[in-house]
Amino acid sequence: MTALSYSYYPGCSLHASASEYDISTREVCSALGIALEEIPDWICCGATPAHNVDELLSLSLSAKNLELAEQMEGNRDMAVACASCFSRLKFAQHIMEKSEDKRKLVEKAIDAPVSLDRKVKHLLEILARDFGLEKLASFVKKPLSDLTVACYYGCLLTRPADVPNLDCPEAPTIMESIMKVIGAETVPWTHRLECCGANFTLSRPPVVQQLSNAVLDSAKAAGADCIVVACPLCHGNLDIRQKEIEGIYSTDYGLPIFYLTQLVGLALGISFEKLGLDALIVSPQKLLKQKKLI
Amino acid sequence: MSRIGVFICHCGENISRTVDVELVASTASQFPGVAFATDYKYMCSDPGQSLIKKAVSEHRLTHVVVAACSPRMHERTFRKAVEQVGLNPFLCEMANIREHCSWVHEDREEATQKAIEIVGMLVERVKKNRVLPTITVPVTKRALVIGGGIAGIQAALDIADAGHQVVLVEREPSIGGHMAQLSETFPTLDCSQCIMTPKMVDLANHPNIIMHTYSEIEQVDGYIGNFQVTIRKKARSVDENKCTGCGICMTKCPQKKIPNIFDRNLGTRTAIYVPFPQAVPNVPVIDRENCTMFKTGKCGVCQKVCGPGAIDFNQQDTLIVEPVGAIVVATGFELYDITEKPKGSPIKGYGEFGHGKIPDVIDGLTFERLASASGPTGGKILRPSDGKEPKQVVFIQCVGSRSREKGISYCSKICCMYTAKHTMLYHHKVHDGQAYVFFMDARVPGKSYDEFWRRAIEEEEAVYIRGMVSRLYQKGDKIVVMGSDISVGVQVEIEADLVVLATAVQPRKGADALAQKLGISYDKYHFYSEAHAKLKPVECATAGIYLAGACQGPKDIPDTVSQASAAAAKVMTLFSKDKLEREPIVARVKENNCVGCFACRKVCAYGAVEEKEIRDRQGNLIKMVAYVNPGVCAGCGTCQATCPSKSVELDGYTDEQIVAMIEAL
After folding, report:
1. Of A127, A191, B252, B319, most Cβ neighbours within 10 A?
2. Which residues of B145-179 are buried (b: 16+ CB within 10 A; e: fewer)?
3. In chain B, which residues have their Cβ closer than 8 Å to the Cβ of A193?
């Protein structure tokens, strides 16, 4: 089997507030021998605002990125780490596949033909399916035994049912399956698919505080040591706002919020700093030391 | 020389809207062999038929082509009409210019041209039609009813009361079906057992009814009036003739912890059991999977205590062949369950409701058992997890039903009413309790139905919330129900003690396999298909087989009973004649050409092809050829298409006729 190779779309967050997700993604892929080549000159996917304002704009932004990836050598599928970018790119493909008219409009807007041949893949499917759980297990140097994690999917990774096609939209297991392979224990909990408040984080913080609190509360109640996420926005709300939420609701969660790749990286024996674990607001130092993982 | 009459129907505006019917008529009148052509608004109406009959006599017509709707709709109508004026009915053909033309086209000019060509083809075909004598077959005046729920019971009683013998086959150890499981029934709240069990007894005692419980249909051969049905009577391990139904075997059976399926697994039963105390027949059956004797070879307590010596551990399945003339299929329904479905399944589970893993999230039928006086709680509403009385109960309608995402787009029809009933039963039993109902729409048409639903809200204090539920999860000993109230546009969160799901009505598992045995058709959900949605709602397209109850589509008790009586009436109509006339559109084998390869036999879905010996005068066998039994042949033509030596021909569709039709284009 030839080595896996993807065009890589980091998206804006991974170049800014979620740089540790970017760093750890690259580290993990390199350790596993998965080649990621960043798409040259990629642009923002439009995130939540674009498709709320102008569908054509939103589709065209994603289509442009798909087209740029198409231009790259090697006929590769596209790897995406951010759940929101993943959702937008998948939506664009889905809508253009269903509507020839919209596809034509988009092609006119970006002045290039749109091909829908390349698959857009989230890191979760790359690790669990393309690379494979068995193979991943063979790379594990330091199993995260003793660590109890709550896998948090949020809204976009699996929904709506017919767009991302990543896993069962209401009862996914893909993240848990990766966590099990790297030795961590996963807990069943109630809020793994609830919304964290997402981009209301700036416009209506009380909404985010309320929703993220429910997520944190549920994970804590289920007995998790930490939460693992695959989305920069979820991460921001649960990690950066955690202290503030604890204040408002007079509780003490102390739940480190990890990116998927950070925990996989730890299990592969990659160092704390290289995975950007020092960038987390809720420090994982104490927990990881206690579990003898650093 | 043929003198063909061509009659073009407007079908109100269905055809004339897109097809210039007058032009079709005038063009057709010029076709070679056509002696007369005209058009009329409703050819199938009485004046329309008279017009045809008059023309046949006046113009001495030898053949008739009616260009109208599908022959499935009115071929019989027009053939009967021409027969009345002395023409052989099989010299009349229909040209379908509605379904095949006007309904599917928009361009009037092109549609008209196509209609002319369709008529032209049929004119060429009808020229080569033969005069066919009607085939008559004898009728066995006994009926088979498959399923012993309320539908099957009603149909069987009606047919038996008319004086005909009925064989009723039920898969379970007792008749009664779902209705025996219900507590009280809408819209009058009379006890289901009280109206059901007397009928069960009537059935068992009826001199004209032979009842086979714990039995399944193994094989169905034959055709209308002459079916041979093989029934597998499963080994009960109890001799029905010896058992007195005293029940001592059940009280002594050491295996007492087997989940009781009849009680939706809420209670337990023994390994030798009757499904419920009022079972008919009151003869137990041994559940061999859970019986210690069958598992380890040691026990036999029931055998020791049985006075009449009815227990027979060595009993085997037996096969019985019953000759019948008509079949009523009444296999009923089951409820969709929200558990995770296999990958790729067209029907999905409800992960958002916990995939069935939250113990106090139950379905409507389980609630019926809780509310039933003969149920596992003696009629007290107690939740399964801890046996406490729930004070807040949330009912959720349309679970599965009307959810394209879950793979079921139809409405299950009965849930709005039974949920309203559940809120009332709950209110009657738990006075300080509160019932909430999440609903999309209230679909309560039916006599006294809307009044009943309003009573639930106005007098019985159920709180109806228009909106759906997005998630259920366990929080401590409560179930958090997250929903929306779309009429005021707010999110609703209720901490419930018990959640009752009105899950979708689905056909029985194995409905497709039974349909294949019977040779009847079914839809993508495996509900059986009626011959015509409006005009033949109880007949199957396969002659002699009728439908009753929820196996055809979701139905409540009143509708089920009506349909069952209708199916019984159809059976009685069939049995009112001693001989049955069949269409002679059957395949014929040209024995001179046939080489006896029997490729036709392999493809015949009806088992109509037999082997026939051809002998010379001295009696020496010359060859074997195929013979099509005209009583069984359904005229599908598959054999004709398959025959490599072109030795089989279907009357009305011979190669000569097909070629003539193509040449007319």
Report:
1. A127
2. bbbbbbbbbbbbbbbbebebbbbbbbbbbbbbbbb
3. 352, 471
Domain boundary among A58, A88, A122: A122
Task: Judge if A244 and A157 occupy the same domain.
Answer: yes
Look-up: residue for tokens 């990774």?
A: A157
Packing angle of the helix pair A260-267, A19-32 (nearest 10 deg)? 40
Q: How many CB atoms lie within 10 A of CB B104?
A: 11
Q: What is the mean pLDDT of residues A8-33?
A: 96
Distant-in-sequence, close-in-space partners of B20: CB < 8 Å, separation ≥ 6: B108, B112
Q: State which of A67, A101, A122 marks the end of a domain.
A: A122
The tokens for B170 are 């039920």
Task: Let me know whether A278 and A250 are in one domain.
Answer: yes
Q: Say how far apart CA A230 and CA A84 lie, in whole Å.
A: 10
**Does A283 lie in the same domain as A146?**
yes
CA-to-CA separations, B364 to B63, B394, B530, in angstroms, rounded: 60, 12, 28
DSSP β-ladder status, B333-335 and B505-507: antiparallel
pLDDT tens sequence across B439-448: 999 999 999 9
| Whether residue A1 has pLDDT greater than 60 | no
Q: What is the 3 state secondary structure string of B224-241?
A: CCEEEEEEEECCCCECCC
| Alpha-carbon gap, residue B439 to B401, rounded angstroms | 12
Are residues A228 and A111 both part of a single domain? no
Could you give the CA distance from residue B546 to residue B422 in angstroms, rounded to a whole number? 33
Q: pLDDT digit string (tens) for B453-493?
A: 999 999 999 999 999 999 999 999 999 999 999 999 999 99
CB nearest to B350's CB, from A170, A190, A191: A170
Distance (Å) from the C-alpha of residue B174 to the closest C-alpha of chain A? 38
Q: Is residue A70 part of a domain?
A: yes
Q: What b/e readout covers B55-88, taking b as 16+ CB neighbours within 10 angstroms?
A: bbeeeebbbbbbbbbebebbbebbbebbbeeebb
- Residue A169 touches chain B, beta carbons under 8 Å: yes
Q: Would residue A101 count as lying in a domain?
A: yes
Residues A150 and A279 in one domain: yes
Please state the pTM of the whole predicted model.
0.83
Identify the CATH number of the domain in which residue A46 sits: 1.20.1050.140
Tell me: do A179 and A109 sit in the same domain.
no
- Output the CA–CA distances (angstroms, integers) from residue A110 to A57, A75, A165, B558, in the order listed: 10, 21, 26, 62
Q: How far is CA B632 from the centre of its chain?
A: 22
Residue A200 in domain: yes
pLDDT tens string B153-164: 999 999 999 999
**Structural domain contains residue A62:** yes
Containing H/E element for B452?
helix B449-458
One-letter identity of residue B244 = T
Candidates A170, A176, A191, A220: best to mutate against B (most CBs of B within 10 A) is: A170
Q: Could you give all domains of chain B from N- to C-terminal order, each with its CATH number?
A: 4-127 (3.40.50), 142-234+317-332+508-575 (3.50.50.60), 248-305 (no CATH), 338-505 (3.50.50.60), 587-663 (3.30.70.20)
Host domain of residue A192: 133-290
Residues A118 and A234 both lie in one domain: no
> How far is residue B70 CA from its own chain's centroid?
24
How many structural domains are present in chain A?
Answer: 2
Residue in B224, B158, B268, B151 with CA at minimum distance from that of residue B545:
B224
Q: What gap in Å lies between CA B157 and CA B568, rounded to an integer?
A: 9
List pLDDT tens digits, range B98-146: 999 999 999 999 999 999 999 999 999 999 999 998 888 899 999 999 9
CA distance B328 to B314: 33
Interface contact A168, partner B, CB < 8 A: yes
Q: Would you call B352 and A190 a contact, using CB atoms and an 8 Å cutoff? A: no
Q: Nearest CB to B351: which of A168, A191, A194?
A: A168
Residues A28, A70, single domain; the answer is: yes
